[in-house]
Write a structure and sequence with these properties.
This protein has 2 domains: 144 residues, Rossmann fold, CATH 3.40.50; 82 residues, SIR2/SIRT2 'Small Domain', CATH 3.30.1600. The protein contains 9 helices and 9 strands. It has a 6-stranded parallel sheet, with helices on both faces. Helix 5 runs parallel beside helix 9. The structure holds 2'-O-acetyl adenosine-5-diphosphoribose (OAD) and zinc ion. The site of 2'-O-acetyl adenosine-5-diphosphoribose has 25 residues, from loops.
């Protein structure tokens, strides 16, 4: 594990934002413990009751706007600024903490909370304001077709062609704070490994994806990721 890496790919999940005070999905008191996924994160739910779904994401926006990055996000910036490798960040998170920390090359495969997409014309725009079913698309003029630009269960992930290429070309794949149960992201490690990458998992605990990683670092990402970055910078 002391190769001189040329292409480092991070995959992040809710755990990287936990120390910024944001809830994960599957923990006790996590978002999916307090809500039924079928009610707020499926396209059927949205079509059935758009305002209920809008309310869920409207309520989330101010909290995510306020949140600040923690040492885990900042460690990625430090690595990107000081390591010669190409370094990309594929995130399942809809928060914008990677951006706030100054990370570059970020791919939000599950979308992001501050973007809205018009389901009629595909127009995407940024806002931190509330959206409801009476709102009109400023591009095509149609009312009631705006949807948070968040990938619901049953929808395709964003940037998949790009991510597929990154997985095949990286020589180090680092997963941070994801439970590894939501596909296709949970399968990324397998692709990276098959194409020759070293694989490291940073998590609080053992995950179901455990066996696919060459190395595990258990503990809070705000501590473990800066330590890994230090190690990578010593071996660059
Ligand atoms: P989960 O809530 O499923 O998993 C979070 C993981 O982070 C768990 O394995 C925790 O053990 C770990 N964790 C918690 N605190 C941590 C810390 N301080 N440091 C390191 N690890 C920590 O969240 P995700 O795997 O991100 O999709 O969930 C994947 C997707 O499921 C989400 O993107 C979301 C959800 O449905 C959409 O909203 C589209
Ligand atoms: Zn439109």
């Amino acid at each position: 594990m002391s190769r001189k890496y040329k292409h480092i790919l991070f995959l992040t999940g809710a755990g990287i934002s936990a120390e910024s005070g944001l809830s994960t999905f599957r923990s006790e008191n996590g978002l999916w413990n307090n809500h039924r996924v079928e009610d707020v994160a499926t396209i059927d739910a949205y079509l059935r009751n758009p305002d209920y779904v809008h309310q869920f994401y409207n309520d989330m926006r101010p909290e995510l706007l306020k949140a600040v990055p923690n040492p885990a996000h900042l460690a990625i910036t430090e690595l990107q600024n000081n390591h010669p490798a190409q370094i990309d960040v594929v995130t399942q998170n809809v928060d914008t903490l990677h951006e706030k920390a100054g990370n570059k090359n970020i791919y939000h495969i599950h979308g992001q909370i501050n973007q809205i997409v018009c389901m009629n014309c595909g127009y995407v725009f940024e806002t931190w304001s509330d959206i409801n079913s009476e709102d009109k698309c400023e591009k095509c003029g149609i009312t009631g077709m705006l949807k948070p630009n968040i990938v619901f269960f049953g929808e395709n992930l964003l940037y998949m062609n790009k991510v597929d290429a990154l997985l095949k070309s990286c020589d180090l794949f680092v997963s941070v704070g994801t439970s590894g149960v939501v596909y296709p992201a949970a399968g990324f490690v397998q692709i990276a490994k098959m194409f020759g990458a070293d694989t490291i998992e940073l998590n609080m605990e053992k995950t179901s994806n455990n066996l696919l990683f060459d190395r595990h670092i258990y503990g809070p990402a705000g501590t473990t990721l800066p330590a890994l970055v230090k190690e990578l910078l010593e071996n660059k």
